[in-house]
Every structure is written in structure tokens, then in C-alpha cells.
Amino acid sequence: MKAQNWDKQDVQFLANLALPVRKLAAAMKQGKGARIGQSTVVSQKVHTFNPLTPQFIHILQDVDAGQTFYQQTAAGRVYHMDIFHQQGLIDHHLVAAALKRAADVYQFQFSLSSIVFAENGSRGVNTDYIDIQTGTGGGRVTGALTYGKKLSLRKAHENHVHFAAMFEAQHQAFLFYAVLAIEAVILSNHLELRRNERLIHIKGKQEKPEMADYTDETDSFMQRNSSGFGQKLSPAVKQHKLVQDALELADHFDTIQDAQQFMNKLHSPNKSKFMQDLEDDGERQRLLDRLTGMGIVKAGQRSLELTVYGQELEQYLKEHFLEIEAHLRKSFRAIKPLSRQAGKNKIQCCRYEWNTGVAAWQKNNDQKDGELAVADTVALAARRMVIDQQPEFQINDEDISYFAREKVSKAELCVLIDTSASMTGARWRAAKFLVRYLLLSTPDRVGVITFQENYANITVPLTRDYREVENCLRTIKPAGATPLALGIKTCLDYLTNTRTHNPLLLLISDGLPTLADQSRDPVADALAAARAIKQQGYGFTCIGLKPHHSYLTQLAELAGGSAYMLEELEKQLLVQAAWEQRLKLV
């Protein structure tokens, strides 16, 4: 691999990595290690070697790096590299600085070469999730770099630089940038790179890693809990961990209040009834796997109790409820649907025309003048320079961009949700997730109508009040039959008697109607009710499961709308379908 220009504005360097990256991805998928150049070993496993023969590297295929180093619950999340060099000390501050620069260069080249970067909300490589260790120390590259000072730990890294990072698989090319950056630091210290003669893959329990020399206090954001291998978390990392685990609990239980309610029940003297309720809800195993993996609870045969960390997290939830809720709202707003047009801000980038010698900007459209969009202008010029292979960077008239405020288009989103018995669990959580997302990511008023058994209810009138929506949604428990016709009629009656603008009905259901309204045929009743939607001129979208494609498509056609058929009612898929339909309406 040619290293020249990797740190320049040369998008071709990234393109040339396509084949090596494919080979690397194949090795990762097989649970194996690979070499980058001659000095670096990379895998998602733990590496070991005999100090007397460091050229022979053992890849422990059954020992995941993330689970071992950071107590991650899932395997295959952390990339582990060792870059070997002549015995000597490498300043870890220099390595950290080089890696941050490498990440910036990679992000820039990737953004130029791939439109996917702009469209899919990819976070790229977050340097907060890169840790290093050398013979002088280590830690998170964006941290204070005052960790990894234990003598045995520093001694163990006098012949190699340890690198661990967590990012999406699509960014595996960054590993090549990281290697080149670290190798440059090593060579600048007048130390030679050391060749790896052989990678030895070991399966099963043939070899267990000895971690005593590798444990010390850490500021890593990848650390899941402090129970493994004697790791201790710094105050800053502990704070970060509490926040992240609180957000994860909210995702699992649906709300922070539900998580707190669950923890309170663990203090109840009547735990047997609580455990039976978990069994009846069908959530017990999923719940226990998640919470024990997070180090929050200890589970026995018929008992469940909070760990010391679980008690600490419970107290944190009580003291920082509003802060965590703010984090949750921010995370909803950060979600980016996959559509090219999705997620655009009301400030949109438009174009200027540059006339030499004229003090004022001249527009090439009818929009009002706005503020110069410096970042967009530079990005357009940089892309053109790469495409045209120009030797120098310069800004031309076609690059000039400015900001202009667009008029915000609003709608009234009425979410009609099937809350029959089959919608319990993950499906109901996904439906509520969609409601929260629409409320927090659009300027629209959002209302919720639910239907189950033999009634339909205006659960949430059209509103922008997040607290009201949360409180109302928490009162609903899916149960009973599916009176779809009654749900549609209730929704139409509400909209008819409410002042609305651009109303859109979003129907979410996992099955067919099972309870009739006017006749003895629930299917025919629902189709008849759907015709009234078209007559009223309301927008309509039905989101359901593929096995019911024929019926739901017919329902949507009669309502004058569209249908989205999904394999499962998952959060991101619901968001995508709802967002696309809203764009058509506004």
C-alpha cells in the first residue's frame, strides 16, 4: 500500500483501499486476525505473544476484545490493533495527536467520496471511542492522557503501540489511516518497525489471556462496567457511563419513569409476584439478559436484585431525571431518515453568482439575500478541485452558497395505533417511539388514537406538549381484539370537529381487523370506513406487516393513500415510512 498523500486532500487514496478493505472485512467476519503492512496485527479479538518471540502473534478467536477489555455485552464491536516496533518509548501524546489528525483526514476524504455519508446520518469515526497505550502511558485520545501509568502496563507496551476503537463496520478503511499515522510517529522517534512473521489463530480454551499486567484506571468511553479484570473508572467516565446506561434503560423500558418503577419493585418484599408478572408479560428472559449484561441486576432462580452499580444508577436516575430526559429528546432529534430529503433544516443552502468588481452579491434565483454559507462554499470548491484534479484550491462563482430561510411546512399528524393483544412488547414500544420522534423532529402537532377490544379512544389530542404525550402513552396497555373500523371512524369524527391544517392519518397495525362495527364482517367494515378518509380529503398512510399486504393495500387505495409493508414493526422502519409520507404531504 502506497502511503503518500494519505493525509492530503486526495480522495483517490481512499478509493485505492477498496480491495484491502474488502479483504480485511472478510477476515473480521470470519473472526480472524489480519496484517496491515508488515508491522500491524488487527482483529476484533485479544492478541497474545511471547516476549521472547514477539514476531509470532496469537489471535484468540474465542476471546472478544470488546468483551474482554471493556466488558461489552455484544461481540464484534471493538477493533484491536497492535503496531510493533523496536524496543523503545513512544510518546502517547504524539500518537493521540496523530490519530486525531488521521480521523479528520479520513472523515474529509470519505465525505468527498461518498454521498452516503451525507444521506444516512453516519457518525463517521468518533475519536472519543479510540484508546491507546504505549510505553509512556495511554488513555482515550480525546481525554487527559494521564492513564495507563502502571509500571507493568507500560513495560508490556515498550515494543508495540496498542490501539482499540469502536465504530461502524463501514469505516474499516480508517484502520489503514490509523496505522500510517502511528507508524509515522514511531519512525519520527528513530525506532524501526518490526515485522510480524506469523499469525497463529487459536480456537477454544487452549489459551486464556493473562490480563493482570494490562489493568489500570481508565477514562475509556467504551468501558461497560467496572467488574471485569479490576478496571476502575475515572469520575468523568463514570458520569458518561451513568448517562449512557440511563439512556439505554429508557430505550429498553420505553421511558425513564418505567425504568424507575421497575427498580422500585425490586425493593418490594413481594418479589415472587413481581417475578410472576415478568413471566406473564413474556419479557423476562430479554429483560434479564439485558440488565445482567449491563451489570445492573443479579438474577437467581426465583429472585432478582440490584447490584451495587444498579443501586448507584437508581440514585442517579432520581437526581438527574430532567437531564436524562433532555438527553433523550436530543437523541430523537438526531435520528436521520435515509431519504435524500429527510431531516433537512428550515435553513437551506442556495446559490450565489459572483461578479468580479461588484460589491454586492448577485443571486441566480428569486430568493432573498442571506448569510454566506462558508462551510458549504468551501466544501463545494474542494469537491470540484478533487473531481477536476486541479493543482490549487480556489473558489469559483459556482461554488458560492448562502443561507436562506425557507417557510416551514406543517401538518397535523394523527397516529392511529392498533393496541390489540398482538401489539404488546416490542411492537408497541416501536409505535410509541414513532410518536415521540414525530413530535420532537417535526414542527407538527401530533395526536394519537388507539383502538382495542370494542372501543377506540382519543388517547392524545393534537398537541405539541411532549409531557402530555408521554403521560398519556404510559396509560395504554395492549389487549383484546382489533376494531379497525371503529378506530378509523373515531379518528375521522375527531378531525371533523377539530380545526386542522394538512391532516395526515398514520395507521399502524400488525394484523387484520377482528371485531366488526356495523355488520358482522370486520374486514368489510374497515374498508367502508376507509372510503370516508378519501371523501374528507385527508392524507393517509397504512404501515403494516407483509403477510397482510393484499388487504392493507386495498384499504390504502380506498382511502386514497399509500401502504408500507414491513417484515416487522421496528423503530427505524416506522420512522422511515412515516417521514416519507409526511414529505409528500407538505
Automatic annotation (TrEMBL):
InterPro entries to which the protein is assigned, alphabetical: Mg-chelatase_DI-like, VWF_A, vWFA_dom_sf
Protein name, per record: Magnesium chelatase subunit D
SMART domains referenced in this protein's UniProt entry, alphabetically: VWA
Domain VWFA: residue ranges: 412-586
Pfam families hit by this protein: VWA_2 (PF13519)
